[in-house]
Design brief:
Helix content is about 45%, strand content about 15%. The chain is α+β, with helices and mostly antiparallel strands. The chain has a five-stranded mixed beta sheet, with no helix packed on it.
């Protein structure tokens, strides 16, 4: 037979805890014993699992074919073994059972088409009771059918109950009782003369032919190994005595005989499954298979005897032993399915299944083959030694222990709940006061464990010194966690006790029922078979000898060294690859001193084995095929009709698939880790290896490591009943009503479990599930695509989709961890941005999304693979055709999170790249409204004025006005011009002044009055001027005339003495406070107020100096130049831009010479100008053709610059350097040089800035340079600059003149920040670590010298 193994899932993790239905008895004398620990005694019929729990008082029905809640019944007395469920006329399911104090119960479950099998909260009569009338003794109950129940009695007799009439909704069943003895009167007298051991005739096993059948006989086995057949009317008609040991193969099998055999040791008195009645496929006669345990045998756990029923005669057929592996094991159950014997053994508390074909003759044993054994795959037990291995890696003790016990499949929810309850009770048994953690209610079991375990451990102090005893605290905490885990292991061991084996529907296969788990028999794949063989030191096939060498090598290295290697391998796998893998591994070997840590015999053994095997590279490729390989049927393409006809799998089937996936992933990871460890042994030979092979090894290890991490993640608890009720889930209210109706509210106290699936289980729902193992598990692994990558530098479509699905499911921590394994391709960056968006990290998400905009449009440089991987995460799985569409998509994402600032930002970016003929009214409206909501009123006004839609201006101006008035921003409102919209402003304010309540702020009447006063006639003149200058030709004509007037005035004033270079202008009633012919800026206006100001003929005077005229001339010249180049400024009302905006527009138009001259004349800050110029230089370095295609006549194509030698990029950098030397210096505090540096580092921090730029800042602002490097995480540069600053200071310190207090000053706080940053960065390069060491040396040397000088001066 094919190798197989057991995979299991916890029942309490699959089925929610429902409210039990109380069962009331008419029996008057029923005592109520205390309830005991939970026990399970299942009986399986088709796809329904029957369990008896709570010390025999609770009957539970679990449907394995559909996802419906369990059906539970709370009986007033303990249930006798073994209840059964039978089908009656394809219309009803009948559950028949007997209780301890003489009641026979029938539970009726109607079967309806296309409807759930049952509703636990249905208001109906579920059960019927019959009280036994005859003398009754507790015994084994066997349900032969819906109308017949047999109960064993003391001394080997049976009580047979046959239904004469079935009850209904209001009546109970009517039964006929009859008793039959095992022996006749003459046989009883004979037995008195040959008395056997006491209790030898007690029945311990009963069986009958499975339904449907017309065979009414019942077979029993007593403690003295007597097999009897009972008929419905004749009582015991056949008796056969079985030996206590298997007879010799040559000895003839004895015929049945009523005479007793020689007394021997009796079988155990508790009920056992020792009989099985079946009809084989080649015969119509029933066969009886009997098992006799041999507890003292050293060759097997017992032997089987096969009988055939020939009329009323039992004819022995064959005898065969159990397997050798069954020694010291206990048979729990066995069954015959399709002429195959399936046995379930209890092997030291764990399940073991053995399978073989039944031999039909004594000589057929060898022909039918031997036994095939199936056990659970090797799994790590949380022993103290294993916990010590876990603690070798960095992390806290509590976190590591908590993560270990919460791994799916390690402990069941029932185990964890029972363990934490016991732990809490033990803590409360101590004298008060209790820690506060013990007095708080918790929503989940995991939260309770994390809070309560270790809460009684306190940090103590040394009584003599007062120092905290941290080592004692951590040891006590570790012991406390070890004690809790030991408690969990003990409870879990009891929950894994094997109980029964059987099969429901044919597609389900054979499954094993344990107390708290449901297991299935599945085939082994290659990795699991290798793991089993290598773990047990069993021989492997020749093609797997190389894997055996790898496995042995890894185990001989030891846990500590393997933990260190595993950490380094994971670091290499996660980092971006800038060198070959051969160089990286050799560097890691050198850093870790790998060969120094090895034992020389081990290194020599590995070398000899590899040399003897040969072809190491080809064998490594074969190992990769084992790790990433799947069954052939996984690759089979399924047609649409098969996908549509595939039935929906129940949750327990998906849970078994998840368990198989977890098991095979761990086995594959062990093999993959062994293979990567081999690379450290052969590091010197790796340069001769194929680079593609090394890349494939690491990409497969990346995939299997990701799967291993995912397989260890729980999916979290489902919503609690309270959450269900709050969400309006149907059934939550019915549960409460059922409690009140049955007056059984107290039963809900304590733990009530909801399904707690693993993450793989959740993903199996998402990826689709098919029945059958290992095919379903392999289909899942293949669908994830994590083992199909070929290059670690790329993220495939399946990998990006896998991360996106994790994000959609809400597992953000897992998604972030998986994304950390993948390279930052556009698809990965997009999913990471969406993840940050879900977590509320809006700035990080915006940065990631803004970077991705270059991936769209006709100039995109994405490869075909990157396009496919990127598209799978986008809506509709299609790339956006333009950047405009992508910006709108990102804007919608931020809008959905109510993040207005980034919504507006990306909408503005969309407007900047929108097509000219595209209607963008909605986008402009969103920008104006968003900026208004953010309180950025000036920006909202700019957007309002900039929009080309007049109707939108008129619609939005009132919203802006009202919002500014409501937010008490009237001063800011009056500072805005509202060119061309004055009428709308006045109308809006007038409407509010007429209709708003004048007693409540804002006072619109006062605001309107302020508007009128601040504008006066100026508003009318401004409108006239706008009307006159609305035409480009009219504006140019008037501006030229005004420039000529300025020139004449300035030339005239230049001829007079410097003290007299000013003129006075009168202030008339018409001009008000506006300076005639000037811009009206109040900083140049000085009033001369004579004493007789109010006398007739007296008026104010305005003084205008020469420098004011020069300022106005330069400002108007710049405006005229802008209007000539962009006439649309007139229509937008932006011809009167302020000086900073003029300089910025000139810079954006690449007119840097003009912009710098204008800024110098108008005294405008040039920070934005130099930032733009630095950005242009960067573009020249990376894409010179794109920059040279623009207008560069005002900087690169001037006579001076064009005469310089070098490329355009070199000319651009030289132009930037000379411009900074000319316009930047101590008077500006080198502000523009700082802006240039920040622009370069923000664009690309990996490329060092120009040396002359660094030299300037290092000379004049070293502290700023260091802080900037720290802010942009360029730690090596920060270390370099810090060392340079200290050495420069040390040079000054050696000067005798500088030996003062001020001469020894350094920014020590900043230096400490550099040291902390260097220590906290785990991936610091070797050069960085060397610089860090030099810095510490310099600091120590300096401190010694400063101390020396201080002592000398003292």
């Amino acid at each position: 037979m094919e190798p197989s193994l057991l995979v299991a899932s916890h029942l309490s993790a699959l089925f929610p805890s429902t409210q039990p239905i109380p069962v009331y008895s008419t029996h008057k004398e029923i005592p109520q014993p205390p309830r005991e620990m939970t026990r399970a005694n299942p009986s399986n019929t088709r796809t329904i699992l029957l369990r008896v729990t709570h010390g025999g008082f609770m009957l539970e029905l679990l449907s394995l074919s559909s996802d419906i809640p369990p059906l539970r019944f709370d009986f007033p007395a303990a249930i006798l073994p073994s209840p059964s469920i039978v089908l009656w006329e394809s219309q009803e399911l009948h559950v028949l059972l007997a209780t301890r104090f003489g009641s026979l119960w029938r539970i009726v479950i109607p079967i309806r088409e296309a409807a759930p099998l049952w509703h636990p909260n249905a208001n109906r009569r579920w059960y019927r009771e019959y009280v036994l009338q005859s003398t009754y003794g507790e015994g084994l109950v066997h349900v032969q059918g819906t109308h017949c129940v047999v109960i064993s009695q003391p001394n080997g007799s049976i009580l047979r109950l046959e239904a004469e009439a079935l009850g209904g909704d209001t009546t109970d069943d009517l039964w006929r009782e009859s008793r039959a003895d095992a022996r006749s009167f003459l046989h009883s007298i004979t037995s008195l003369l040959h008395a056997g051991p006491s209790g030898g005739s007690d029945i311990i096993s009963m069986a009958s032919h499975p339904q449907p059948t017309d065979i009414g006989n019942v077979w029993t086995l007593s403690r003295d190994r007597h097999l009897r057949m009972w008929s419905a009317r004749g009582g015991c008609v056949v008796e056969h005595a079985l030996p206590s040991t298997a007879p010799a193969r040559t000895a003839p099998l004895s015929r049945s005989s009523p005479s007793p055999v020689k007394p021997s040791v009796l079988l155990q008195p508790e009920p056992q499954k020792l009989l099985c009645v079946f009809t084989p496929s080649h015969s119509d006669d029933p066969h009886i298979l009997v098992f006799i345990p041999t507890e003292g045998s050293l060759s097997s756990g017992g032997f089987f005897t096969l009988f055939i029923m020939d009329g009323d005669v039992l004819r022995p057929v064959t005898v065969f032993d159990a397997s050798e592996t069954s020694v010291h094991c206990r048979l729990q159950d066995f069954t015959v399915l399709d002429d195959t014997l399936y046995t379930l053994w209890d092997k030291q508390g764990q399940s073991m299944v053995e399978v073989r074909l039944l031999p039909w003759e004594a000589e057929d044993g060898a022909m039918y083959g031997g036994w095939s054994t199936a056990t659970y795959a090797r799994e790590a037990e949380l022993t103290p030694a294993y916990l010590d291995e876990l603690l070798l890696s960095p992390g806290s003790t509590a976190d590591k222990c908590f993560e270990a016990i919460m791994r799916p499949g390690t402990f069941s929810p029932l185990t964890l709940q029972a363990a934490i309850n016991q732990y809490t009770d033990a803590c409360r048994s101590l004298p008060p006061p209790y820690p506060p953690q013990l007095l708080v209610s918790y929503s989940t079991v995991g939260e309770q464990i994390a809070s309560v375990v270790g809460c009684t451990v306190q940090r103590t102090k040394d009584p003599k010194t007062g120092a905290p005893l941290d080592e004692n605290y951590w040891n006590a905490l570790k012991r406390d966690w070890e004690g809790f885990i030991a408690r969990c292991r003990e409870i879990e061991r009891n929950g894994r006790w094997p109980l029964a084996i059987g099969r429901g529907d044919p597609e389900s296969g054979v499954f094993v029922v344990e107390r708290e788990r449901l297991a299935s028999l599945a085939g082994e794949d290659i990795s699991l078979r290798l793991q089993r063989q290598l773990s047990s030191s069993a021989p492997v096939e020749d093609q797997f000898v190389f894997v055996e060498v790898l496995w042995t090598m890894r185990h001989r290295l030891g846990p500590r060294l393997m933990q260190s290697l595993e950490t380094r391998i994971n670091e290499v796998t996660r980092q971006e690859i800038a060198f070959t893998y051969a160089d990286i591994i050799q560097e890691q070997v050198r850093i870790a001193s790998f060969h120094e840590e090895l034992d020389e015999p081990l290194e020599r053994w590995v070398a000899d084995r590899l040399q003897s095997l040969g072809k190491v590279r080809e064998r490594a490729r074969y190992v990769l095929d084992i790790i990433g390989g799947f069954d052939k049927e996984v690759k089979r393409e399924e047609v649409d009709t098969e996908l549509l006809s595939r039935p929906i799998s129940p949750e327990w089937s998906k849970a078994l698939t998840a368990s198989y996936v977890t098991t095979t992933v761990h086995a594959r990871y062990d093999i993959a880790l062994s293979l990567v460890t081999l690379l450290f042994f052969v590091a010197n030979d790796l340069p001769q290896w194929d680079a593609g092979l090394l890349a494939e090894i690491f990409v497969v290890f990346r995939g299997i490591s990701t799967l291993r991490f995912m397989a260890r993640q729980p999916a979290g608890d489902n919503a609690t009943p309270t959450a269900h009720a709050a969400a309006g889930v149907p059934g939550a209210d019915d549960d409460v009503v059922a409690k009140l109706r049955n007056m059984h509210v107290s039963a809900s106290r304590g733990a009530r479990f909801q399904p707690t699936y693993s993450l793989v289980h959740r993903l199996a729902n998402l990826y689709g599930h098919s029945s059958g193992l290992p095919a379903s598990a392999h289909r899942f692994l293949d669908a994830t695509g994590l083992l199909q990558s070929l290059s670690p530098a790329h993220a495939t479509r399946q990998e990006v989709l896998f991360c996106e699905r994790l994000r959609i499911l809400g597992y953000r921590e897992v998604a972030r961890e998986v994304l950390a394994w993948l390279p930052r391709t556009p698809g990965v960056t997009y999913v990471l941005g969406r993840l940050w968006l879900d977590e509320g990290r809006y700035d990080d998400a915006a940065s990631a999304m803004e970077i991705l905009a270059g991936s769209f449009g006709p100039h995109s440089a994405l490869s075909i693979d990157d396009q496919e991987a990127f598209a799978v995460a986008l809506p509709g799985e299609r790339l956006f055709s333009t950047q405009f569409d992508f910006y709108l998509h990102v804007s919608d994402l931020f809008k959905a999170t109510l993040n207005t600032s980034h919504d507006v930002f990306f909408t503005q970016l969309a407007l900047s790249v929108a097509a000219p003929d595209l209607d963008t009214t909605t986008l402009w409206h969103n920008v104006i409204k968003g900026l208004t909501d953010l309180g950025q009123y000036e920006d909202a006004y700019t957007a309002l004025i900039s929009t080309p839609y007049d109707r939108l201006k008129r619609d939005c101006v009132s919203q802006l006005l009202y919002r500014m008035c409501e937010e008490d921003a009237v001063d800011r409102l009056m500072a805005l011009n509202f060119a061309g919209l004055s009428d709308e402003v006045e109308d809006a304010l007038a409407f509010k002044a007429r209709n708003a309540d004048p007693r409540i702020r804002p006072f619109y009447s006062r605001i309107l009055y302020t508007w009128y006063v601040s504008r006066g006639t100026i508003g009318a003149r401004a409108r006239k001027l706008a009307a006159v200058m609305g035409d480009a030709y009219a504006f140019a004509e008037l501006a030229e005339l005004q420039l000529e007037a300025y020139v004449v005035a300035m030339n005239s004033l230049a001829l007079v003495d410097a003290k007299s270079q000013w003129i006075t202008l009168p202030i008339t009633a018409e001009t008000g406070h506006e300076v005639s012919g000037l811009s009206g800026m109040g900083r140049w206006l000085s009033k001369h107020i004579p004493e007789g100001k109010y006398a007739p003929g007296k008026r104010d005077a305005e003084v205008v100096e020469l420098k004011d005229m020069q300022y106005e001339y330069a400002l108007l010249s710049a405006r005229v130049d802008l209007v000539r180049r962009d006439p649309t400024l007139l229509s937008a009302g932006e011809f009167a831009l302020p000086p900073p905006s003029i300089v910025l527009r000139l810079a954006q138009g690449n007119r840097f010479n003009t912009a710098m001259a204008t800024a110098r004349t108008l005294d405008v800050d040039m920070s934005d100008l130099f930032g733009h110029l630095a950005g242009r230089c960067l573009r020249l370095s990376r894409n010179p053709d794109a920059v040279m295609s623009e207008d560069t006549s005002d900087w690169l194509l001037t006579d001076k610059v064009s005469s310089w030698p070098g490329t355009p990029a070199e000319k651009g950098w030289r132009y930037l350097r000379q411009s900074l030397e000319r316009h930047d210096g101590p008077q500006t505090d080198y502000r523009y040089t700082k802006v240039a540096l920040e622009t370069l580092m923000a664009f690309d921090r990996t490329t060092p800035p120009p040396p002359w730029l660094i030299h300037t800042l290092e000379e004049h602002h070293p502290e700023y340079l260091i802080r900037t490097c720290l802010r942009y995480e360029v730690l090596e540069a920060a270390l370099d600059h810090t060392l340079a600053m200290m050495r420069k200071s040390d040079a000054r310190l050696t000067d005798e003149v500088a030996k003062t207090a001020g001469g020894t000053w350094l920014p020590y706080t900043l230096i400490d920040q550099v040291l902390v940053a260097g220590d906290s960065q785990a991936d610091l390069s070797p050069r960085g670590r060397a610089l860090l060491g030099e810095l510490r040396t310099e600091i120590a040397s300096r401190m010694k010298r400063v101390t020396k000088y201080s002592q000398a001066s003292a």
